[in-house]
Amino acid sequence: MIVDKFIIIVVLSLLIICLSIRFIKRYAPENLIIISLNALSIGIYIPFALNNIYIPIVYQIFIMTLGFLIPLSALFLQYNDIILTRRLLYYLMKCAYFSKEYQKTIEYITKIVSIQGRKAEYLYILGQCYKNLNDFMNSRDSFALAIELDKNDYKSYYELGLVLDETNKKDRAKEMFEAALKIKPDFYDAQEALGICLTSQGCFRDAANVYKKALFYHPDSYELYYNIAMIEMELGQYEDAEQAFLKAGEIKPDLYTTFYNIGSINYLKGEYDKAIEAYQKILCSSLYGPKAYYKIALVYAAKAEYEKSMSSLEYAMELDNKYIKKAVEENSFKKMRDRINEYITDKELMEQKIKNKKNFMKDRILKFKQSILNKGDNLNNLSGESENSVVEESIKLPIKEKKTSFKDLTLDSYVDSGEKEIKVSFYRK
């Protein structure tokens, strides 16, 4: 029994020594607490062991937990390079980053790096924080250091390219995007960024080739087809542009700009029926609907179908007044000029009529309110009436065609249709 107790004390002491060594070598601050708990368990155990006293079950569990289980678990985690305080600091950093508390994230990363040195992951997040704070110089340096630590960190290549592109260093940005794609050829963001970078430099054919290569990895991307189509239009390749637009429209039927551009291409090609068909697909759009009606009017005018052209043009002018001025200046509507001027005149007369009616109704309501106030003043002057009496007066009110209560008579809803004599009761104190 004495030997068993001695072995237990020795094992507990060895655990304290091991924890102390790990604290010194790896700087694991949690070991200070664990060592204290271990020492407490030894302090509890030794008196019982020396006096050969039975240890209650509660104390046995306490000694086993503090003296053996916790220290052994800590040593196992540290042996596998898992230090609890560092792990806690890491998760606090990630939590701050996802909460978009970038300044706090930078502070956590600074602490982590000072404890365990630089890692590509920490520097990547650091670069993202500086980028979101618009500190492009520190952001660039952070991503560059991340790449030095991990040559296969394609995300840092990509982010560094974005920063360089933002600071107008296009050639270096292009190199970073290409480096990212060399590591990960299907990296969509880098493919798109490279295409945009090349387009901004005027390298349209190279940009189109980048997008076409990206389609091999992302065949269902309507954005890639749309970008290809826009570049082909810029290069004057209308057939290729139309095919790319059609593909984008198949993938995303509510991409109204696609059908608008298809209509414009067919209009330029003189294929008017196809142009009308394309424009009709976007009439339901609140943004592109007026544009589509105006374009359809242009197409019908080109076909010399002026009745249909005027009908579509009226829709466009009703939906958006800016098309009135455009219609007046548009040479394609030269033969419809009289009809357009007639429409404008009628529209102005209608607006003036509505305005006059509103002013008339406003005056009537003001007079009506004044008459009510005057009646109330007259009632206040009446003598011989008891306190809190109710007096009825007959007044003539303008009425609406449907029955309306006094409180419902407003400027917008009021419609004059004659007068009617009604009784109004006034409560007099």
Explain how this protein is built:
With 429 residues, the protein is mainly α. Helix content is 72%, strand content 5%. It has 19 helices and 2 strands.
Beta-strand residue fraction:
under 5%
DSSP strand count: 2
Order of helices and strands: HHHHHHHHHHHHHHHHHHHEE
Q: Could you list the spans in which at least 5 consecutive residues all have pLDDT below 50? A: 383-397, 399-429
> Into which percent range does the helicity of residues fall?
over 70%
Mean pLDDT: 81
Q: State the strand order across the main sheet.
A: 1-2
Determine the structural class based on helices, strands and strand pairing: mainly alpha
Radius of gyration from the alpha-carbon trace, in angstroms: 41 Å
Approximate shape: elongated
Instruction: Report how far apart the termini are.
Output: 105 Å
Number of helices: 19
What is the makeup of the main sheet? 2 strands, antiparallel
Features:
429 residues; mainly alpha; two-stranded antiparallel ribbon; 2 strands; 72% helix; disordered C terminus
How are the elements arranged and paired?
Layout: H1 2-26, H2 30-50, H3 57-79, H4 84-98, H5 102-116, H6 120-132, H7 136-149, H8 154-166, H9 170-183, H10 188-200, H11 204-217, H12 222-234, H13 238-251, H14 256-269, H15 272-280, H16 289-302, H17 306-319, H18 322-329, H19 337-380, E1 389-398, E2 419-428
Antiparallel strand pairs: 1-2
Helix pairs in contact: 1-2, 1-3, 2-3, 4-5, 5-6, 6-7, 6-8, 7-8, 8-9, 9-10, 10-11, 11-12, 12-13, 13-14, 14-15, 15-16, 16-17
